Amino acid sequence: QVRVVESGGGLVQAGGSLRLSCAASGRTFSMYGMGWFRQAPGKEREFVAAINWSGRQTYYGDSVKGRFTISRDNAKNTMYLQMNSLKPEDTAVYYCAARPAGYVSGSAYPNEYAYWGQGTQVTVSS
């Protein structure tokens, strides 16, 4: 069993930055891929970014490429999402997710993740 908890959301003006954190517990953190997703009201869950077990392979959704950076610190059992140049359309609940045991790569598909956090709200004002 893996537990993941997001933090770092909040209200920011357009053009600003936020850093989200995802703390994981319950299994060796370095053994699985992880990802960030987001969901705005009335919209489907959207892929934001993913990272493999080592942090050397990263993937991004088209809408955040060049603005967001995903990273992980296996020694701290924590994943991060640095969000720069935020836009009002980035407003959403952001979710951290972990893949099942043995799946060390990241993925853009929500159904390939087994564990989800409760989400953290990010609001970008214009």
Helices and strands in order, then pairings?
Blueprint: E1 3-7, E2 10-13, E3 18-25, E4 34-39, E5 46-51, E6 58-60, E7 68-73, E8 78-83, E9 92-98, E10 115-116, E11 120-125
Parallel strand pairs: 2-11
Antiparallel strand pairs: 1-3, 3-8, 4-5, 4-9, 5-6, 7-8, 9-10, 9-11
Q: Structural class, from helix and strand content?
A: mainly beta
Low-pLDDT residue intervals, each spanning 5 or more residues: none
Instruction: Give the SSE string.
Output: EEEEEEEEEEE
Q: Figure out the total of helices.
A: 0
Termini Cα gap: 40 Å
The count of strands amounts to 11
Describe this structure in a few short sentences:
The protein is an all-beta fold and 126 residues long. Helix content is 0%, strand content 47%.
Can you describe what's shown?
The model has no long low-confidence stretch (mean pLDDT 95). It is globular and about 40 Å long. The protein contains no helices and eleven strands. Helix content is 0%, strand content 47%. It starts with a strand and ends with a strand.
